[in-house]
Give the backbone structure.
Amino acid sequence: MGGWVWEIKHWLKIGAGCDCLQLSDIIRKRSIMHQAMLYEKLPNSRVRCGICQWRCNIAPGKFGVCRVYQNRDGTLYNLNYAKASSVAVDPIEKKPLFHFFPGSLAFSIGGWGCNFHCQDCQNWEIACPADNEPWLNSQEVPPETAVELAKAHNCQGIAWTYNEPSIWFEYTLDSAKLAKRNNLYTVYVTNGYLTPEALDTIGPYLDAWRVDIKGFSDSLYQKLAKINRWRGILEVAKRAKDKWNMHVEVVTNIIPTMNDDDDQLNSIACWIREELGELTPWHVTRFYPHYNMTGLPPTPISTLEHAFEIGKKAGLKFVYAGNVPGHSSESTVCYNCGKTVARRLGYQTEVVGLEGSKCRFCGAELNFRGGGSKEGVK
Ligand code: SF4
């Protein structure tokens, strides 16, 4: 259970310790039906959802793949608006985002369900819950409350994380708009399967896109996540950067025998370099056995270090081995002068050599945002 039980406990701690809010005010047990923003009405009261790339065609009374959008009499509703499964105050490095407001705290919030069904899911209790409607007994955190809690706990921004943020899209959009009005940064920690039109809807209010690229083959995405058209993830990540000027960082969780071959790792690294740029951080993280993949061992450190080398050889300037506290690749070293600009140990970060987005020692561009000012944030 690890992660999310801790998050819930932490949530209770936040609520109890917050001067501006009584816990009873913010915990309301009920279902919140919210009409979906992006869908098309079809003949026979069917609807087609436009939020993620499944583009579910849903009959009356039925749900989409994520099981949180339902067609009720020809109208598509989201059923878990503002219903949180997990809330915590996290270092931004935990997302992981290493080049975005280093050392800051992010008010981190997750909902229920997922549009993927990854066999290695670390948060499967909330992403693939056994209950049909787990949100009925969960805390309600309206956008106003999320922003108040973020400010009350000295967070510089809000991150939608722990489960896939796009499947409570309307909630994240309302929250992002309000966060921007309150001078907070906004982050999606995502599997990247949002449609281009959904991205264009929330794009003006999102600052960072922390996206998984799980592998680089049809068979990997099919086997791991039951996704066929995975290349749309790449297009949308590029669009987040090019069209909406978001800060993008990529994570690949390296799973033994699944995506640890040189072909896939090299293809991911080359794609990042070509399409997102050589200064884009790539996190190669250690897999631990979870959910339906308890039969595999944790990723050997030597495999992560091999992936690190592949990334560097492909021309990426910033490759980090993740889930290995104390690893030598944790800190950011300027590729030009070799000096350390951000020193990290686990989730502790000390910025020692940044001037805005650049190296303070030699002036090289290092693709940081919030490294001393709020430049590059909407
Ligand atoms: S969000 Fe995705 S999975 Fe859910 S109903 Fe819409 S298209 Fe289907």
Observations:
- The first helix runs from residue 2 to 17.
